[in-house]
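Hi U.,

Before I forget, here's the chain from the pilot set. I'm dumping it here mostly so it's searchable later in email.
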Amino acid sequence: MKIELFTMRYYHDIINLWKRSGIEVSSSDTQDEIAKILKRNPDLFLIGKEGENVVAVGIGAFDGRRGYVHHLAIDPDYQKKKYGKMMMDDLIERFRKKKVHKVHLFIEKHNEEVVDFYKKLGWDIRDDLIMMSFVPDKSLYKRDVEI
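Structure:
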């Protein structure tokens, strides 16, 4: 697998990959929203390719203080080939170069297989925090949208 920087020409490929991988696609994954995070973090938004096929994606984000990993996914037909580790290793090295002290990621509770994957890579489950969310404009954020 060859890791490359994401460009918008692969937008539909990553949406399809996320859906095939069981990641919930929402209104924050529209073309405009993906373009925003790409503009803010162009060196942290990665895809993995086999030939011309996009088989992996991971969005790294840096807020100036902490790093975040969003929607890291491997096409189900390419899982169990260490591609997830390759993607995460690449992102972690990019975070190191930015002198990021800590990186966070979010996993949907039902996805125990992914929790186990990250544990094997050395990630820790935090039990000292509660994640909370607030939607400031309910007309913007929608779950279960067709993109």
